[in-house]
């Protein structure tokens, strides 16, 4: 590890820029800082034992099914950290923050003092709160260690059960099926991806899942996990027993913010930040999945969970910490692939009582979108097999144009949305 200067053994290390979290947001911020400040010392603290890797690749077929070399997962070379004079505290967890003393304590008792601090801690997979959840064969998918565990398991596993309906389950069921396993999915919800998607979208996905041989157990939950050491079967609330040797619990994520709240930072679901990604304490910034920031396009506080958002927030935070003060502005987008379907999300897709939904296309033609408006302005969209609309919709959210007179066109699946974009040049 490249180390930062320390005067004596007992003295805390003083580092100009301390970054907690070595994912895409944290690493991009370090890279940006180094590009603008060649001198300042930088430290990244990561509780994972690995250098930056592509988290999004973990659930993609080429990596998961071994169609590309394992090495493709790494996004930085091993010596990138030393080459850029970045001290990399890997396998170490930050557990305590003192914003008065400007110090961070790690789980091995190392203390780092900082001039500027970035919190880029992302999220963890939500633990499945069920008796027997510690049995072998029960897995999650958030980290490379998780992926390795599942990739090892599928060498011998025959039957898998996925818990929860969301993008991880969607992509992983596709992977598991392609790997030759029998797959069942158990979901509490009445239809797939409820309430993020509407019923039409949810049923389109379900149709594809079922056509591909996935058994769907709706409005159902696992009541008992059976097996001595290793999982052998699950019993559902309706009495059904599904035998399985692998369970993938895809039941959402948690943001580990309690220790930051204890340090006096304002938190909600994530860590609260303004439009410059500044947290509520002096010289502290937030970036990536954990940032609950003031969005200048929507004029409200939101959390965006996507790779592009984390990358660009890391960049903006790095700039703001090292050289200039810049507002963060992005219409986030996200796509999920599986079962020959493409599911896309643009902007803010929450449907609230103040919002209106204009639908476009239909399940019959296997191409369906929902455009979400607030005060007649487009704020987001969900798209099933309609990715051609994603670019224009991103621009329309950004331009905040009044669409009161355009709803008929928005609803026409053949209408070119690009023609509504204002020419700003
Ligand atoms: C399987 C999978 C597939 C995905 N696919 C897509 C996709 O196709 N498209 C897309 O846009 N997004 C996708 N995502 C989401 C995307 O990966 C995240 O939005 C992105 O990784 C967020 O980056 P981040 O740097 O904010 O957080 P993270 O990537 O979560 O990194 C944060 C790091 O900080 C560490 N950490 C947390 N607390 C501490 C602490 N106290 N001390 C030290 N270290 C700590 C964490 O362990 C982690 O290593 C996917 C996610 C997963 C899990």
Walk me through the structure.
The protein has 425 residues and is α/β, with parallel strands linked by helices. It has three domains: 13-123 and 255-322, FAD/NAD(P)-binding domain; 127-253, FAD/NAD(P)-binding domain, CATH 3.50.50.60; 340-420, FAD/NAD-linked reductase, C-terminal dimerisation domain (Enolase-like, domain 1). The chain has ten helices and 25 strands. Strands 1, 2, 3, 4, 5, 6 and 18 form a seven-stranded mixed beta sheet that branches. A five-stranded parallel beta sheet has the order 8-15-9-10-11, covered by helices on one side. The chain is globular and about 60 Å long. Flavin-adenine dinucleotide is lined by residues 20-26, 45-48, 55-56, 58-59, 93-94, 120-123, 141-142, 168, 256, 288-289, 305-308, 310, 334.
CATH fold annotation of the largest domain = FAD/NAD(P)-binding domain
Considering the protein shown, what is the CATH homologous superfamily of the largest domain?
FAD/NAD(P)-binding domain
The distinct bound ligands, ions and cofactors come out as:
flavin-adenine dinucleotide
Characterize the largest beta sheet: strand count, sense, and whether it forms a barrel. 7 strands, mixed
What's the mean pLDDT score?
A: 95
Let me know the number of strands.
25
The radius of gyration is 23 Å
Q: Please identify, by name, the CATH architecture of the largest domain.
A: 3-Layer(bba) Sandwich
Shape: globular
- Strand proportion, as a percent range, falls in 25-35%
Total number of distinct structural domains: 3
CATH class of the largest domain: Alpha Beta
N-to-C span: 49 Å
Secondary structure tally, helices: 10
Low-confidence stretches: none
Instruction: Estimate percent helicity.
Output: 10-25%
């Amino acid at each position: 590890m490249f180390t930062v200067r320390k005067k004596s053994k007992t003295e805390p290390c003083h580092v100009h820029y301390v970054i907690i979290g070595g994912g895409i947001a944290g690493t991009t911020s370090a890279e940006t800082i180094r590009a603008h400040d060649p001198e300042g010392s930088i430290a990244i603290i990561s509780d994972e034992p690995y250098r930056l890797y592509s988290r999004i690749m973990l659930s993609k077929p080429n990596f998961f099914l071994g169609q590309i070399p394992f090495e493709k997962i790494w996004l930085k070379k091993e010596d990138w950290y030393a080459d850029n004079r970045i001290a990399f505290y890997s396998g170490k967890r930050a557990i305590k923050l003192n914003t008065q003393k400007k110090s961070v304590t790690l789980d091995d008792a190392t203390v780092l003092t900082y001039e500027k601090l970035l919190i880029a801690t992302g999220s963890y997979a939500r633990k499945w709160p069920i008796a027997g959840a510690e049995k072998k064969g029960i897995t999650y998918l958030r980290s490379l260690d998780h992926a390795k565990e599942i990739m090892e398991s599928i060498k011998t596993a025959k039957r898998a059960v996925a818990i929860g309906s969301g993008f991880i389950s969607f992509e992983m069921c596709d992977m598991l099926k392609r790997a030759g396993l029998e797959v069942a999915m158990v979901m509490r919800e009445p239809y797939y991806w409820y309430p993020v998607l509407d019923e039409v979208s949810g049923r389109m996905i379900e149709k594809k899942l079922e056509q591909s041989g996935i058994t769907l157990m709706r409005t159902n939950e696992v009541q008992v996990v059976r097996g001595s050491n290793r999982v052998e079967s699950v019993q559902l609330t309706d009495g059904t027993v599904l035998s399985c040797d692998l369970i993938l619990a895809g039941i959402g994520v948690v943001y580990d913010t309690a220790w930051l709240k204890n340090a006096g930072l304002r938190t909600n679901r994530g860590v609260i930040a303004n439009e410059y990604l500044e947290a509520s304490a002096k010289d502290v910034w937030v970036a990536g999945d954990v940032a609950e920031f003031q969005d200048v396009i929507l004029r409200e506080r939101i959390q965006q969970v996507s790779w592009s958002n984390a990358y660009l927030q890391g960049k903006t935070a790095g700039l703001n910490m090292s050289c200039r003060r810049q507002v963060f502005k992005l219409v986030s987008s996200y796509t999920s692939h599986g079962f020959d379907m493409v599911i896309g999300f643009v902007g803010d897709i929450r449907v609230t009582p103040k919002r209106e939904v204009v639908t476009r296309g239909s399940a019959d033609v296997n191409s369906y979108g929902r455009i979400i408006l607030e005060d007649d302005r487009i704020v987001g969209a969900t798209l099933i097999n309609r990715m051609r609309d994603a670019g224009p919709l991103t621009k329309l959210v950004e331009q905040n144009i009044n669409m009161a007179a355009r709803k008929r066109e928005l609803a026409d699946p053949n209408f070119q949305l690009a023609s509504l974009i204002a020419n700003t040049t």
